Amino acid sequence: MKQQISEHMRVVEAAIGQIGLLERIADRLIACFEAGSRVYLLGNGGSAADAQHIAAELVGRFKRDRKALPAIALTTDCSILTAVSNDIGFEQVFSRQIEALVTKRDVVLALSVSGRSANVVRALQAAKNLGATVVGFTSRSGGAMAELCDLCFRVDHDQSDRVQEVHQLAYHLICDRIEQHYTQK
């Protein structure tokens, strides 16, 4: 356990070098909201839970009372998820939703430790085809996903637990910056 905590601390320390990137991501989300557009979030497994967590922080609140912000997790509609998976294929479960909902003014934010999940990669390709801004949260390797992102936060690790721990810290920092923007007006 001590070694795991030490490794966690090392990976968090490495993330400090990406504060500028996290600020740019927060600023891009603020610009999206200011333009009346939406943020769509997606991921598989723990990353799906993180997508829902981020959406909840933006729609509800993180630490401060402020207006609700339009954020939608594409991981929550079980009828769409199961219909698309069954009828078309699981690799298109997010891309179909993006084709139906996303515009070029929106932001698509994807979380994937491996960066190789076929359904995430297809979703980002669909978002790029529409002209939407693509933001990614991934690991050191980044997989195919990293190449598709306009802004990509990469954690200096490849194990899911360490990566997801730092993803959570990073998106909480982003949510905090967004709330500061809306509560200082």
Describe this structure in words.
With 185 residues, the chain is of the alpha/beta class. The protein has a single domain (2-183), classed as Rossmann fold, CATH 3.40.50.10490. Helices cover 56% and strands 12% of the residues. It has 8 helices and 5 strands; from the N terminus they run ααβαβααβαβαβα. Strands 2-1-3-4-5 form a 5-stranded parallel beta sheet, with helices on both faces. Helix 1 packs across helix 8 and helix 2 (19-34) packs across helix 8. The protein is globular, with a radius of gyration of 16 Å. 43% of the residues are buried.
Give a brief description.
This protein is of the alpha/beta class. The chain is 56% helix and 12% strand.
Which labels suit this protein?
5 strands, 185 residues, alpha/beta, globular, 5-stranded parallel beta sheet, Rossmann fold
CATH topology: Rossmann fold
Number of helices: 8
Number of domains: 1
Question: What summary fits the major beta sheet?
Answer: 5 strands, parallel
Low-pLDDT stretches: none
The count of DSSP E runs of length 2 or more, i.e. the number of strands, is: 5
Write the layout of secondary structure elements.
Elements: H1 2-15, H2 19-34, E1 39-43, H3 46-59, E2 71-73, H4 78-87, H5 95-101, E3 107-111, H6 118-130, E4 133-138, H7 143-148, E5 151-154, H8 160-183
Parallel strand pairs: 1-2, 1-3, 3-4, 4-5
